[in-house]
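Researcher: Next sequence.
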Amino acid sequence: MSRLRALAAAAAIALGACASPAPATSTPTASVSVATPATEFDAARAKAHVNYLADAARAGRYSGSAGYRDAAMYVADRFREIGLEPLGDDGTFFQHFTMPIVDLTEMSTLTGSGGKTYQPRVDFTESVGGRSGSGTAEAEIAAIGGAARTGGLNDFAGANVRGKIALVTGPAAPNGGSSVENAYQEGAIGVLLVGGATLRYSYIPRLQSETIPTFVISEDVANQLLAPSGKTLTTAQALVRAHRADASAPASAFDVQTTIRMSVSLTPIHDVDAINVVGVLRAPDPNNAARAVLVGGHLDGVGTDPNGAVFQAANDNASGPSVTIEVARALVASRSALNHSIVFVAFAGEEEGLYGSEAYIAQMAVAPGRVESLVAVLNLDVIGCCSDTLIVSNEAPDLQHRVLDVAKSLGVPTEATGSGGSDQTSFTRRRVPAVLIGTRDYILHVYADKPPLVEESRLKKAGDVVTQVAKDLATAP
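Model: Next structure:
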């Protein structure tokens, strides 16, 4: 799931499930037998796919990596055995494209007063993209509330931010802009945000010419860093609210007499060969076969840390392509009834900013498949853990209601949700009806996102719903 949604969800992740940051060990490779026609979704097979794709041997499936290529080959092999036609380059299942990427060269560091060393992926984690990038900063702290500096608000009043590390205590201000950019404009040389410190947020390979190190820290670390001021995170936030409510109240920002050091080291942004995997179940009537339903989800994860710890990315998002494979297998038996074709895709590059779905749209020139031929898109993301309730996004209300109705008829709990955050966005921008289907509670971007957390029963619920919706759409007149 991409950075946008991951950042929004940071505080809501079930962090209690996250493992300590130790190198992951490999699990046995899944064995999947040759396909046989099926009429319903096979959750046991789907779980076997998750086990293979999210094995530590895939090294977190970072786009352009050897582990990702291995995963893409696996998906293509499953598409082939099921009987899908290849819809990639030169008669293959692979659609190649070039995308930028950036990664860590070493683990980031945060050191407090007295030489206290904080632990990455436990106490803090780096943010990468835009103004946040490589750099080292050693300075005192300035606590700056939500870092608002527009709309009549000034969260910086009361502190001298220039040359310091800005600690954004919150609360955020409506339409306050980027807190990191605002702090930079005020002269900060580093930024600390408060949120989910165990996550590895997606690294967005679009950086300003000048960057500063930015960390997301836990509430506990924030309180430790604020301690020399005699204030806590809660009292700092109360000051902000009071000053916003009454401009005559004391200024909410304040300096903290403690020096910390933070460092982030990144590779240069560089291009990699990324791969979407694309197959089609073609409708028998050539007059209708040019129109298609698309079912898919992103195959990429956020990779491996420099210390060797793997983000195995089972729920986010080995679950999506695994369900996609078995939806395809279940629908092959209905080929003769199809009025529209069904395209199945495993996207690369979602985590870095939807590169794979954008490349699919730009490069897919044949029908069925090209964006003008699509009647609906069902995008599957974080769909195997940690809730029995499916969420369906609202970008296409008619399609959303169709999914909700099918789920209800199958006895699967559902919940309508907002938009954005995954590959369906690329299609809704082109006015193609598209929705995200996932689970209400989920785990992502943490070491603990391993195959045992993805449950066969949840894959079954999701798979049954997606299979029925795709069939209904593809058999409609």
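Model: Residues 456-475 form the longest helix (20 residues). The first strand starts at residue 85 and ends at 86.
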